[in-house]
Queue: 2 jobs
Job 1
Amino acid sequence: MKRPKRMLEDLDRDIREHIETETRDNIDRGMSPEEARYAAMRKFGNVARVKEEAREVWSFVRLEQFWQDIRYGLRMLRKAPGFTAVAVVTLALGIGANTAVFSMVDSFLLRPLPVDQPSQLVVLAFQHKSGALDNQLSYPNIQDIQSQAAGAFSSVLGYDIGLDSLRVNGNGERLLTSYVTGNFFPSLGLKPYMGRLILPSEGAVPDADPVVVLSYSYWKSRFGGDLNVIGQKVSINARPFTIVGVGPPGFHGLHPLLDVQGYIPYGMLAVSGRESGFMSDRARASAFTLARLRPGVALKQAQTELDVVSERLSAEYPKVDEGIRFSAHSELLSRPDPDSGGQIVQVGTIFLVLTLLVLLLACVNVANFLLIRATGRRREMAVRVALGAPRNRLVRQLLTESVLLAVLGGVAGIILGVWCSAAIAGVNLKTAIPTHLDFGLDWRVFLFTLGVALFAGVIVGLIPALRASRADVNQVLHEGGRGIVSGRHRLRDTLVIVQVGGSLALLVIAALFTRSLKAVQQTNFGFDPAHVVNLSMDPKNLGYDDASSLAFYRNLLDRVRALPGVQSASIAFAVPCSYYSSSGTLDIEGYEPPKGQPAPNIKDNKISTDYFQTMRIPILHGRDFTSADDENSKSVVIISETMANQFWPQQNPIGRKFKSTDAKRVGPLEIIGVAKDARFSGLSGTIDPYFYVPLAQSVPPFVTLQVRTAAGTDSLLPALKSQVALLAPGLPLFDVQSMDDALDTMNGLLLFQFGAVLSGAIGFLGLTLAVVGVYGVVSYSAGQRTHEIGVRMALGAQPGDVLHLILRQGFIIVIAGVLAGLLLAFGVAHTLGDALVGVSPTDPLTYASVSLLLTCVALLACWIPVRRAMRVDPMVALRYE
Amino acid sequence: MSTKENRERIELLQGTLDLLILRTLLRGAAHGHAIAKAIEFNSDDVLQVEQGSLYPALHRLIKRGWIAMEEGTSENNRRAKFYRLTAKGRRQLVTETSKWDKLAGAIARILRPAEQEGKS
């Protein structure tokens, strides 16, 4: 590359010489020296451009120009700090919202499990003919699939989740455990951090392997990263266990959201209160099951093989498995379970679309600012064109400026987005159950944000750049500074209409979600959460067995009921909307499930006396439990209204009997009462059947003390805590909170609140952007028309006429935007479907009030520039030129 | 003078100017000013080259390897750059010329009947 460089160095000399030669020729022809030189230079043309073009032939001119553009762009942005700040903040809000929402979608739906070859993992589920999809399989079925579908799956692994108590040196603490089959760790391809993991030989025999593997993070937090932990004896639910290893860092178990702290062989499930037979009974479907596809096997092939297995098992075990169909689902699409995966995808998509709309609005806003600026820079552009700048060069220059803006906005946006998602990840899930939410940056989030920022830069810059560079040199230079004809505003007006319309749609959706939350909050739960406080505890943390736990519960209730301010107190296993529940498969006397359908599986609760008083659930028929319904009396049960109607329609259920696999008693339970329906899980949709058994007849693994107080719940808490401490010194308490708070869980109101807050924030962003946009455009055009207004007023126009003149423009834009927005909102709201509860997606009140709000706010944004226009002094306006 | 016209002329010149330079150099090496003069002279001053645009064109041709540059002395005994046709350039001139003939013929055939219609 020596030659081109020399050529360019000599170019100056060559050109000089060329012009001199030409000058001499001209003199020879008889021109005066001055004339000759001038003629020679004119004939040569633009020296600067010739040099530029010659250099361009050789080099990386493009790159050079790029740097030049960037430097120039930065200089321009620095020169207009106010504009730059507003544009960057606007873009940062749009990009940040996208980063935040995408990082959530990424963490829930896109991030693969931290295991070997995660794409080979599939989730197994099953359903009977018309039943719902169930993602918990029975242990015998897992074993059969493992051996009979070996062509498709290299392994089939199962796990169950337990909430246990881990005691080390006399200190008990709750432990979230995963009971895993022996092939769990080998087939995930995981290596221990220390010691060993659960071995393939473990877990197949009930009660045979009392060993526990700690999760890395639990080992760090509870054991302080003690290297001597391997081999240490601990007790889990009062059973001696040995710590054999520490799991790999970053592995939190396979269950979505949960942060599993310990891994125990599947065969030890009895420790967690599982009744005997959990490994041999085909009807006890309780293990979450995943399978690893053999390399090269597609999901479809695996399904074909599963269909064969399903038919075989259906024929072999007609009593339990008749009509069963096992199915394999992509792990990514099965979060949190194969049945609801689609819904999460839907909600995620809705929010991504909403935030993209916000970004689009932000872009339109900035594009509008740029358009306004571009009008101010028409002279600059015209001069540059006149001086010989190629048109595409100008476009590139302007595009560089807007991409610079977008990159600055992107950097600010990614910071904002990460901060937002960290705030969301830190939200209180109202549970002492360890959870794991990680919305951190990964390459997907980063790429997404980068793409979004560049997209924004191009969108923002293209229109103004193309327009500005199209400026007609002659016209602009002759015009002086003015001469913007009002017809030219059409593009800008359209952009503002888009903006008003888009933010109206966002606001409508935000309002629908908020109304949905209100509707859910006002639902009649069937119980009264006000003035009730919950305290959860697990006496196994102190090594209590069932009998001593029960004695402790009775003492505690006696003392608490005696406290002043306590209206009633009771103890129960399940609390509404909590993350755990129990259920049993029922064998009802005189009831046969329809052909091809499994026996009914129904949720239950274990409760002390006074439970229905504390919850304010009325008993409709029969009687409540009394203290006489204890561990020595006959087994009794109270069923819910829905359960009574489902199994004993138009009959008196009192005195009827059924067996439940969840009951510790072997014999049948006799119905003694019917309680009014209450919502225990899911605050919307149909109410499932439910039943209650006495605490004394089926002691649960842990309980919640519930106290109804006369006044506020807070004042009573110290007294309640001291009663517990008095009876069971050192017993840890979990989830100490009012029942109102306890409803804000992922199963309860939390998702609705989350939706309302998130869409509210998005709607507010949209509103702000619309107001800024309308204000910007109207005030700019009013400013541009200062001269015109001055003339009009000098000619005798009244302020009212001016008001009319300016306001009309704003009004038309706003109304057009509102109409467009109503259509858009109508279209989007229909896709919300299930996400809205208790409010129609076309709720006229919402649409009307939001339109009114937006119109008022937007007209207010017009009002300020209009007032300024009305105060114009004709003389000032005219002299202004 | 509006920029629109300006731009059209440059586009027209681009390919043509290359051809004219090659043709001029067929008679022997020449320096920049001489090339410009030759083009004007040989076309009876019909083609007024904006002389500056010659230089980017020369550089372009060197880059393509159609002409080469060497140092020499001009008529007035000054050091100057001389441009001469390479073998590759010679071949290129042949193809370009025949291409040009075809194009000129085609345009002529299109224009002539149009002109007649216009006159009638």
Job 2
Amino acid sequence: MKQDNPELVDRLAAEYVLGTLRGPARRRFERWRTNTPHVDQRCRYWEEHLMHVAKGLNPVQPPAYVWPAIRKRLNLTADRSPRRWARSWALAASLVLVAGLAGLLYWRSLPSVRPTATSTIAAKSGGEIWQVEVFGTTNRLVVHAAKLPAHPAGRDYELWALPKNGNPVSLGVLPTEGTSTRALTAIQKAALASSSQVAVSIEPPGGSPTGQPTGDIVFVAPLRASG
Amino acid sequence: MSPIAGSSAESPTEFDEQLLNLLSRCAAADASALQRLYELVSPILFACLARILRRRALAEEALQDVFVSIWQRAGQFSATRGRPMAWMMSIARYRAIDLLRHERHVPALVPDLPERLAAQPEAASEGESPAWLPPSGLLEHCLALLTERQKHCLELAFVGGNSHEDISRLTGSPLGTVKSWIRRGLQSLRQCLEADRAVK
């Protein structure tokens, strides 16, 4: 799609957000939005405004099993009963703030908190695309996005550990900008510990639905122990 | 000052700030932030999904997908990307519309949607916005300028997830007419919104 007529962009963005743009045209538009900041900007404009059309929609409490199911899918462990959580929210928020500041100061004062392994994912031309840092001691994976190549059409990049014995293990969807930090699960940590390479594949939005790479592997980069 | 000038869509509300804070904690892999976010916004997102998908089991499944996406993409969201509620609602609505594509066997249109969903214009004061929705006198004002038919079509599409063809069937109006009601409705909305911006 190469039409850059602002009226047309706006009309398509509005119908896309409204939901009446359907079928192949919707998918083409999604790809266009992903690759084109001014199209994305028009979509966000309509998303913010049309949201008000749903003003009369009454919230519906989802069944209780849904939250534990989400937690399970994401391998999350922290949990509290909603009632207790509500009561201790203010206290918790201030504690989090204090702990966060203390943690930040502590972190900064600690030259030894370095990544235990790193990987630079670069284009063939040599340009850095992502810098991956594994913090084995704190179970964190930090990814800095540098200069991304043309984003795959309406798709996400997903990072994989390639353990010596066994199948690739997903390390999550890669950021397209900025820095992402996420917790490593025991499975991811074990996979990284026996990997000397990481790979990047192209997947449907949100990542592979199967838990294994489904799209093309576009990058493979060495994972080097450090620190 | 016009009564609508103060309710610019850009100024973040306290609720926005709260959601932004939770999203940035999600980006830092704080699971308790996701739980809090779930408590705050899952009822409205679930209502959106159920309305579009019309089958509870499918909506429950989709709600899981939506929160998995929010968790994974929280790091990509920043305040410059606008209102967090609009972002999350879009994730939910687009997911539901995608699922509709694969669920052609969904029992065809249940005609339970034509009830009026939007508040009447005269009731649309800032104080009556539901908690999840930032007040926007401007939008209310612009929506009130549309014809009843235009507004009804926008609701059937946005809230009900109906296609042009569905709306034509539901309203018993020719497809071409429905398309032009929607196109003109959106056009008028934009003109009204832009006119306000030009005044400021």
